[in-house]
Amino acid sequence: xxxxxxxxxxxxxxxxxxxxxxxxxxxxxxxxIGCTGEGSExxxxxxSGYVKEDEKCTDVDECNLPEKVCTKENQDCVNTSGSYKCVxxxxxxxxxxxxxxx
Length: 102
Hints:
Domain EGF-like: 59-98
Strand order of the largest sheet: 1-2
Number of helices: 0
InterPro entries: ECM_structural_protein (IPR050751), EGF (IPR000742), EGF-like_Ca-bd_dom (IPR001881), EGF-type_Asp/Asn_hydroxyl_site (IPR000152), EGF_Ca-bd_CS (IPR018097), Furin_repeat (IPR006212), NOTCH1_EGF-like (IPR049883)
GO molecular function, one term: calcium ion binding
Protein name: CRE2A protein
Structural class: mainly beta
Helix content: under 10%
CATH topology of the largest domain: Hormone Receptor, Insulin-like Growth Factor Receptor 1, Chain A domain 2
Shape: elongated
Order of helices and strands: EEEEEEEEEE
Keywords: Disulfide bond, EGF-like domain, Repeat, Signal
CATH architecture of the largest domain: Ribbon
Strand content: over 45%
């Protein structure tokens, strides 16, 4: 079997999987920028919103950072994979970018 992966035939956001007589390109984990294999522990670099922790790229919980990311009144932070979003607190709704009581 010829190892086609030795020639790095895949794109930057993929890794090469050598198979018998062929190869396939597989997508890197969402937490990676470039990778050498499957999973968050095979990242070359961590994507934005992720940090290297115990040799893995793990999600940064922006909602638990010392500096508040959702600064408007009556707004809550919701952590998402690789990011976060700001939503109006319970009992409030978004009216032109301001959270007003419902």
